[in-house]
Amino acid sequence: MKVIAIIFLVHYVIFTDAEEGASKYCKTADEKWDELKEMIESLNCPCPEPPPEPLESCKYGFEDGEKANKDYVLQVDEFTKLPVYCNMDGAGLGDCGGGGWTLVMKIDGAKSTFKYDSPFWSDKKEYEPSNGRNLDAGETKLPTYWSTSFTKICLGMKVGAESKFIVLNQEASSLHSLIADGQYRQTSLGREAWKNLISEASLQQKCNKEGFNVVSDVPNFSKARIGIVGNNENACTTSDSRIGFGTAGYPDDTNSCGNEAKHGGDKGDKSTEAMGYIFVQ
Predict the structure, then answer these.
(1) Residue 104 vs residues 51, 59, 244: alpha-carbon distances, Å
(2) According to the model, what pLDDT value does residue 45 have?
(3) Distances 232 to 140, 184, 217 between C-alpha atoms, Å
(4) Does the keyword Endoplasmic reticulum apply (predicted)?
């Protein structure tokens, strides 16, 4: 559009000059150019900025110089672009630090959406992706659950106004690849690290089975898609306590994220529902 305007105006100036007499040609080239620029600017034809290229992940965005903690458009697969919240500098993420964290899930422990047996843990279906643009209380499961590889996981729980995060060094092609098949995969964070997710968290002293797809030997007792279960016996047969994400079972089958403990928890009986956050990098 601007090129057409320039051609028209050059044509207009030249032929107007010819009609008005040779005296117009005595103007300097700079004067003529200034006139032309003023006429072009008066047309007010701005060229829109091209949209930014989508990021492969928040980590790659961080490495390319992105610093703001906000939603960025990610190329989550060959055909899909989606705005996803990125935490670039680690602000508010405790020991997770910076480096570009990609949001994967938000889980409300008071709701059953992401309980242990929910199909969302095994399928490749998103849930409320618009809630993945920020860290408010809206639950979400993003395509980053099955499309984003990582070497670290940042796990957080919010109870009231307090948020606490821990980092888990774990390499995988996606979180889906660690969880969807239901196979137990052990981690070695230790019970105290898991307890750091919630102030005054309580766990029984024994069993201490942790990782992905953690279940008691008796299915109706405590289990977690990501987390730890405890028992008052050495075996994990009937675990009565847990801290984790995607939880279910005794003592409170309705709590899908947070802390449950009975029968000898080191901080007494607890039933704490949390807002859970899962990031990868």
Answers:
(1) 24, 13, 16
(2) 60
(3) 35, 21, 14
(4) no
